[in-house]
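To the wet lab folks,

You asked to see what we're planning to order before we commit. Fair enough. Below is the target structure as tokens, and below that is the sequence we designed to fit it. If anything looks off to you, flag it before the synthesis order goes out.
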């Protein structure tokens, strides 16, 4: 869990900026988007297969 402790003379804007930086470093946003909705096992397999297919197509072109 990411947390930011506010300094003595620190403004809320700079603390919020620090918090956003820590969250992006920790990789929380992609994980949050992934778990936003329930995904059935069939949907998960389909998404992974599509990603593999895309990756293979990209690899052959270059």
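Sequence we intend to order:
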């Amino acid at each position: 869990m990411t947390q930011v402790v506010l300094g003595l003379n620190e403004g809320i804007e700079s603390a919020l900026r620090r918090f956003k930086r820590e969250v992006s470093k920790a990789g929380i946003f992609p994980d949050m988007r992934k778990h936003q909705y329930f995904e059935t096992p069939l949907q998960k397999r389909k998404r992974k297969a599509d990603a593999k297919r895309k990756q293979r197509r990209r690899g052959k072109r270059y």
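Structural context that might help your review: Residues 12-61 form one domain. Helices lie at 12-26, 28-34, 41-61.

Thanks,
Computational group
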